[in-house]
Structure to design on (290 residues):
């Protein structure tokens, strides 16, 4: 394989060597670029999920918990979202659902959100959220600020 | 002023010309301000008469609707969009604990909901640090 092909594979090469490319990304931790050879600059990058999660680790979800007459609410100020419930777990599940719906909206209307002054910055945190396995996404809402609680973090 | 309900939030969204974007467990409303700011809020469906709760209402006004409480009620009373630029209240002080801190407090310190409700973020951090420092003695 020449240097050019190490840097990027055409879509037809990607079809033929998809398993090898994924293995390179996941086992050798080397990102692989698939690039359309004709018709512009379109390309796709395959990155190991854990490597991506580590690279995006700084993009945290800062929550705030309110209790009103025994009912829990958990808010995500940066995203303008909230979840509510009769107890903490219900409120967390409600917020998680709101964040999943928002991520779906965001990526399906990316051109719109990229132009908004208050939501363009959500791309990287939502990429981190989307790249996290569904059964681990709630843990992103439970992260404690680094260094805030020394023994618990 | 009376306690706000989810029905009041829906009424505000209607008079302030928000778009109903989705209805599932919650009704999701969206509005784009003239400067391009994209606002979003959601109201629990089938709970129109239930109170929102003072702290959550403050958050919804300040962050999601970006209006003051007075502007919220004026819009509903007058049946007209809120005056903008609006004047939302500043954040609640002191800051509330995060979900991560509350999760740790429930798991390790076994605090009740009532006790958690009284804590600020700083109180929560202090309490957890004290708990873990005692445990490591």
């Amino acid at each position: 394989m020449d240097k050019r092909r190490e840097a990027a594979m055409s879509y037809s090469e990607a079809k033929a060597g998809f398993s090898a490319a994924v293995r390179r990304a996941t086992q050798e931790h080397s990102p692989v670029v698939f690039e359309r050879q004709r018709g512009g600059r379109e390309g796709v990058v395959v990155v190991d999920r854990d490597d991506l999660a580590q690279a995006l680790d700084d993009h945290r979800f800062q929550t705030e918990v309110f209790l009103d007459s025994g009912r829990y609410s958990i808010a995500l100020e940066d995203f303008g979202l909230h979840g509510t419930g009769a107890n903490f777990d219900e409120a967390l599940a409600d917020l998680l659902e709101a964040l999943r719906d928002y991520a779906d909206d965001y990526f399906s209307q990316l051109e719109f959100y990229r132009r908004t002054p208050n939501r363009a910055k959500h791309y990287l945190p939502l990429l981190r959220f989307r790249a996290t396995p569904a059964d681990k996404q709630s843990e992103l809402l439970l992260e404690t600020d680094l260094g805030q609680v020394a023994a618990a973090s | 002023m009376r306690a706000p309900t989810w029905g009041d939030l829906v009424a505000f969204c209607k008079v302030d010309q928000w778009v109903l974007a989705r209805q599932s467990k919650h009704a999701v409303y969206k509005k784009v301000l003239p400067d391009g700011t994209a606002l979003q809020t959601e109201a629990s469906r089938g709970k129109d008469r239930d109170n929102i709760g003072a702290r959550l209402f403050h958050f919804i006004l300040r962050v999601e609707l970006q209006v003051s409480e007075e502007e919220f009620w004026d819009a509903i009373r007058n049946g007209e969009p809120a005056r903008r630029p609006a004047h939302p209240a500043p954040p609640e002080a002191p800051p509330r604990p995060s979900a991560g801190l509350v999760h740790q407090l429930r798991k390790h310190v076994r605090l009740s909901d009532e006790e958690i409700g009284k804590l600020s973020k700083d109180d929560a951090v202090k309490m957890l640090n004290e708990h873990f420092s005692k445990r490591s003695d």
User: Anything to note?
Assistant: The longest strand of chain A covers residues 63-68. Confidence is low (pLDDT under 50) at residues 1-5 of chain A.
